[in-house]
Write a structure and sequence with these properties.
Largest sheet: none
Helix content: 55-70%
Structural class: mainly alpha
């Protein structure tokens, strides 16, 4: 009896470990999410997400403005007139945009919005509407309307009357941002429809797309870049200086402008291979997107506890005359109970459990049904290859040679990766394998080049800075980039489903809440769905925007990426993302916060179905929410980019106890999402200890199967030198010093260090320079003459001689 009592804590530990290790296992009922990751959702969904359900009444207002204006010019329908007449009418609207009368100007703006919405009043189907919308957008772009609207946006952003009116109100509603929303809707629709090619595009329209992408990163008419204007709107909103700005539309437009101007995933992959070719490096070993598409989600077999639980009831355990079935879940529940909960001590619970086990054993063997035959061992089809080609960094090869030379030879040869004298044959073979998988990144070459410039600023100056879209964007946002990152993360925090509503937090629902709050349960349900949908779209836009900027800046120059990364880390991006994932992620990715009959253009084309409470509860028929899966993957990728090869930031993941949060997210059956979760778990396993690795062997196996191998990375055992604690602050400070040196050199005083500027030795030009003297100096000029000139003996002959 005493021995069995001693074994109970061990049994508890085994059961607890089985529950903890069910990180990827599922009941078998779920199927993999058929989610295909891309730059964005389909065009129809992206445009539908632009409009809140509260804006439904404004569609008819746009139509009325257009029809009144159009018929006032003597026309009947937009579809019936010819192309020349359409262009003539667009020129008329363009002139109307410049009139001083605000009411008349906004009617013209709404008429143009009706055009980019596809003149839905004259269309019988959604296909016709999308065709006319695409045609009208190209027509408006060719007439220069896009840049007219950028000017309108800049003017409306600086509208002090609207700002002061919103500041005086205790609660801002959708009516306060009416004009801004219409302008942003026109700009967003034009950007979105110009973003992707269509099978019906003419050669002229294809040229329009290319020209449009190039012009997005060029200042227009002396104005700042459009992304800088939009970032400025975000920071003003977060500071409370403009609480009426419609943040959802602003962020969606900002994301799409950068996506079109810098390029998406496909362009990024091609550009990276092009840069590697120019640097004399081989192309990338594989396309990550393609590998993830072919990868399957992990679904290990059920835990041993579940298998035992399934078998025990069929054994028909009996106790005397009563046939009592004991399932392992009963044992687990009795073990998990707090023994001191009823104040009776812990002995009774253990005794009861032991009595149940004894009573089960007391049944005679002949009363038990025969044990079912053992099932045959399933055949495992061997996988031909791992999904990723293993990589070895130059630093890893150098460390390997350094350690082996210290062990076998006793001295070091700096920066020599070829000499193997005195090393045994197995080391030769190891070096050969490492060199076969050696991967030199563009980042390594850029860092090496920066070190050369720092050592030899005069003989090896930087003269070949390409004027790429990423470079233009980085130069434009560099002065205020820290404020932009803080503002984005503030809004992300406010939109996260796990965040609590605080009185001092920003109101991201200013462009959603109606003037009069709902009075019925049905209206409240509709508004509640709209609020959740609104927040999900904001998270989607911010996550897509940050990831896009990080990837393009890293490709353009590693220190641009590090500059942005550091400010994200300083703004607490890592704990914010972990806070986001500290929820039921399975519920989040399958949420149905949408009402299909209210989505644009379904709500204004064809027979309108009556909206019922059942339709609100049902939502759409999709097994997952595209934008939520997209947001989760983006946030995981951002977290990976911030922490990769940064031990100080990896320790932040450990300190914030990210392992259980990430493990729960593995329940989402999507290969790409699981891959980035496993990457985050892999980088911190060496810090989590042997017990954690022992208790999570399925997770360790999944990491081995899915994540790329680094041949001499001892991640699974924790014996690596990097796992030992050191001054993490010094690592971050050294990186910041390199980033600051790069920024000061390239973007500082005319791109050159003032210490290395040529010195003017001509006495006439030096004395002839104009100096701004302060008023205090001018008042005390005579005193300065007495102290600095008359009181000192000056050998003028010697000065003139030099």
């Amino acid at each position: 009896m005493a021995e069995r009592e001693k074994g109970l804590p061990k049994l508890r530990e085994i059961l607890r470990r089985q529950r903890d290790d069910a990180d990827i296992s599922s009941t078998g009922d779920e199927s993999d999410l058929e989610f295909l990751y891309d730059d964005a959702d389909c065009t129809e969904a992206e445009i539908a997400e632009l409009y809140s359900y509260t804006e439904e009444d404004e569609f008819s207002e746009n139509k009325e403005c257009f029809e009144e204006n159009f018929r006032g010019q003597g026309y009947e329908t937009w579809i019936s007139i010819d192309d020349t007449t359409r262009r003539k009418y667009i020129v008329y609207l363009q002139n109307e945009l410049e009139v001083a009368d605000r009411t008349r100007r906004m009617k013209a703006v709404r008429s143009i919005l009706y055009l980019v919405q596809g003149v839905f009043g004259e269309c019988d189907s959604e296909i016709d509407q999308s065709t006319w919308a695409r045609y009208n957008v190209h027509l408006l772009y060719e007439q220069g309307l896009f840049f007219s609207f950028i000017e309108l946006l800049c003017m409306e952003v600086d509208n002090q009357d609207a700002i002061s009116s919103a500041m005086r109100k205790s609660s801002v509603s959708i009516a306060d941002s009416s004009d801004l929303r219409v302008i942003l809707s026109v700009l967003y629709t034009m950007v979105e429809l110009m973003r992707l090619e269509h099978e019906s595009d003419t050669e002229e329209q294809i040229k329009n797309r290319q020209t449009f992408a190039d012009e997005l990163v060029e200042p227009t008419f002396g104005q700042e870049l459009l992304p800088v204007t939009l970032f400025g709107m975000v920071t003003k909103f977060c500071s409370g200086a403009a609480p009426h700005y419609p943040m959802k539309k602003t962020l969606m437009l900002l994301w799409k402008v950068i996506l079109v101007s810098l390029g998406g995933l496909d362009k990024l992959q091609d550009t990276k291979n092009e840069y590697r070719s120019q640097a004399g490096l081989p192309p990338l070993p594989e396309d990550p997107g393609e590998v993830c598409r072919l990868m399957r989600a992990s679904s290990p077999p059920a835990s041993a506890a579940d298998l035992i639980e399934q078998q025990i009831p069929h054994r028909g355990l009996r106790s005397g005359a009563n046939k009592r079935l004991i399932s392992l879940s009963d044992i687990k529940s009795s073990l998990d109970e707090n023994p001191f909960e009823n104040g009776n001590g812990g002995d009774n619970g253990d005794d009861d459990l032991l009595k149940e086990i004894d009573s089960a054993k007391s049944g005679s063997d002949d009363e038990l049904p025969p044990t079912p035959p053992r099932p045959s061992t399933p055949r495992i089809t061997p996988q031909k290859t791992l999904p990723w080609k293993p990589k070895v960094r130059t630093k890893d090869l150098e460390l390997f040679l350094e350690h082996t030379r210290a062990k076998f030879v006793g001295f070091q040869v700096k920066h020599d990766k070829d000499s193997l004298a005195g090393l045994p044959q197995p080391i030769h073979e190891g070096v050969k394998v490492l060199k076969q998988h050696l991967y030199v990144s563009l980042s390594e070459l850029q860092i090496k080049r920066e070190e050369e410039i720092a050592k030899n600023p005069l003989s090896q100056p930087e003269t070949d800075v390409p004027n790429t879209p990423s470079e233009v964007l980085f130069q434009a946002i560099l002065p205020s980039l820290p404020q932009y990152m803080i503002a984005l993360l503030k809004i992300l925090l406010a939109a996260a489903p796990t965040s609590k509503t605080k009185t001092d937090s920003i109101n991201i629902l200013a462009d959603l809440l109606p003037v009069e709050m709902p009075t019925t349960v049905f209206q409240s349900m509709k508004l509640g769905i709209d609020v959740n949908r609104h927040k999900e779209i904001i998270v989607k836009a911010i996550s897509g925007l940050i990831l896009l900027m990080l990837k393009h800046f890293k490709l353009n120059h590693i220190y641009q990426f590090e500059f942005m990364s550091q400010h994200l880390v300083f703004a607490n991006c890592i704990p914010l993302v972990l806070k986001f994932f500290n929820q039921n992620i399975v519920s989040y990715v399958t949420a149905k916060n949408s009402i299909p009959v209210l989505d644009f253009p379904s709500c204004i084309i064809g027979d309108q179905k009556e909206l019922t409470a059942e339709a609100l509860e049902k939502g759409d028929n999709q097994p997952y929410c595209w934008r939520n899966v997209f947001s989760c993957i983006n946030l995981l990728r951002i977290l990976n980019k911030l922490t990769k090869w940064k031990h100080s930031r990896t320790m932040m993941l450990v300190v914030f106890k990210s392992a259980p949060i990430l493990k729960r997210a593995l329940k989402v059956r999507h290969a790409m999402m699981q891959l980035y979760i496993l990457k985050l778990l892999k980088m911190q396993t060496k810090y989590l200890g042997r017990q954690w690795r022992k208790s999570n062997m399925k997770t360790m196996s999944a990491i081995y199967q899915k994540v790329r191998h680094r041949l001499n990375d001892d991640w699974a055992y924790g014996n690596d030198m990097d796992a030992r604690p050191w001054d993490f602050q010094a690592e971050e400070c050294a990186l910041r010093a390199c980033v600051d040196r790069f920024s000061n050199r390239r973007y500082g005083t005319n791109g050159s260090d003032p210490e290395f500027k040529p010195v003017d030795n001509c006495i006439l030009s030096v004395l002839g320079q104009e100096l701004d003297l302060s008023e205090e100096f001018k008042q005390n000029y005579e005193m300065w003459l007495d102290m600095e000139v008359f009181a000192n003996q000056i050998d003028w002959d010697q000065i003139v001689q030099y």
